[in-house]
Task: structure prediction
Amino acid sequence: MNANPNFISCGATDTPDIDIEALRARYEEERLKRHRAEGFAQYIEARGEYEEFFEFDPYTKLPPREPVNDEIDVVVLGGGFAGLITAGRLVEAGITNVRIIDRGGDFGGTWYWNRYPGVQCDVESYTYLPLLEEMNYMPKDRYSYGTEIFEYCQSIGRHFGLYEHALFGTTVEGLQWEESSRRWRVTTRQGDTIRARFVIMAVGPINRPKLPGVPGIKSFKGHSFHTMRWDYDYTGGGFGNPVLDKLKDKRVAIIGTGATAIQCVPNLGKYVKQLTVFQRTPSYIDFRGNMPTDPDWAKKLNPGWHAERMNSFHTGINGIYGPDDEDLICDGWSELNRNVQARRKEMGWPEMGFEELMSLREVEDHRAMERIRKRVDDTVKDPRKAEILKPWYRFLCKRPCFNDDYLDAFNRDNVDIIDVSATKGIEAITEKGIVANGVEHEFDCIIYSTGFESTTDLRRKYGIDTIEGRGGQSLYDYWKDGFRTLHGMSLNGFPGLLWTGWIQGGVSGSTTLMYDQQGRHLAYIIGETMKRGGDTVEPSAEAEAAWVKHVRETFYYDGDFWAQCTPGYNNNEGIEASRYTIFGDMYGPGYNAFDDLIRAWRDEGSMAGMQMVREGQNESV
Ligand code: NDP
Result:
């Protein structure tokens, strides 16, 4: 029994009665208010004249180095969790001629760059942090802060001896397949040219900041920055030390109210002279209840507890609880699933078709969201602010947020909120500040908490100008009508270019679980290719086509759900919502079925559908 005695709110929650038709109508009204026909094109890319928001590292000053020109077996592009786990699995498999390239000055990825005050993981640490049993590590708190997660990334790097393989502060600009050498030519902004048999893309789903598409950003005469490049020199304090004492005489604006802003606002509110929050869509804010890890609980955990817990989180988010399912995590992420389970139990577990189940889920969804809106009234004393802070959309339309200080921050006299939904966002930035609802507000500092490129054009999202496979075929053209892969991890015509992430695989809300699944599989593919004497490997066109067909046939169409959601990155800003979520085409039967499928593929042993790339020939393995 591995349930966590720290747990506070397990079981079904007490939710109020609702008028479902009235709520549906209100949600639609709120959705339309925010919907913009241009979708993601409304945002400004942090490139060219805007790259000052992105193209620098305020945290590490690396010494200058000579360009690297060499040959290596595997380049892993990205040193966040995806890259760390995958590189770790390669090293374990004896594949050590590996180089990890990352733009940052250390490992960590997201957890390297995001150092804003209050940065924390909103998924339980015992679930989110990977490799806990292998690393013999127990997180300090139930929900870890960014400092601990960043240090944990560094310790994974040390555990697998990855530092000696790392090229930090390095931005890849081009990936080109060279037929003559049967290698990828990896070129970087730092002048490196590295040839590799395999390139593993571990670039993460959201890492390039975006800015609101309004005029005047460059004209602002005060100070401004994006949350993922927090300027502690300006604000005071530091990473893990959110004492923002240099802001005590400053009028500060923060644009955006997503998961990042929710964690920044309470810390800003404590220190600034005046904080104004510009909100287009309110986040869903539930109870957090963080607490230190109970050492007695930790001592009692049985081997295998971590995978069991990660799987439980996966079922809580991505699955449907049956009579015997136990929620080991028991926090707000799986509330809706638990509430549906409780209703079905009350009803005596009648047979239910999928539509019926979804109807029941919708009712429970509305009830849970009503509870969330009631929390706002119960917490925020000023009714004007409370009204603005209430979310009118279904659970998971936006990322749920959990914070015990955010709503309360609006009880401070120095913290105000301006609703910009009527104009679908702020209207302009001027020399002095921000124009909203036709009024110019003056500030000393503007903080952009406006999120990341996610469902944008892939070239813009990856920020790599050239990815060219055999015959100069551009990846961006190859995928322009949709992803084409075998198992989401390899593609025909791009030998040895291997992927982690949300593409045509078994997606899980338990992200690091998914990365481990992919890391193991990629280590197998590379290891086997080397054992069998291949230079590299790629799927045959037939195998790829069959997988794409299978994925599309099994694709679970949830477009009706996403289409009624308020715009956001989860539904491609409300444009063709289902096809273009950040998840890519998901394998419909889900993560566990996909896990079984790729394990069986490995056990079968023939690398079915793959062809070796050797000098002068491609041949079936
Ligand atoms: P988001 O994309 O979630 O939020 C961006 C915010 O900017 C939204 O509130 C958006 O409004 C607002 N915005 C954009 N354009 C305008 C405009 N023109 N005028 C006014 N407001 C505007 O970015 P975040 O950085 O908050 O979070 C990104 C993701 O990072 C999270 O969803 C999560 O996946 C991850 N994250 C995870 C954390 C964790 O604990 N694990 C913590 C923090 C972030 P609107 O909603 O209307 O579009």
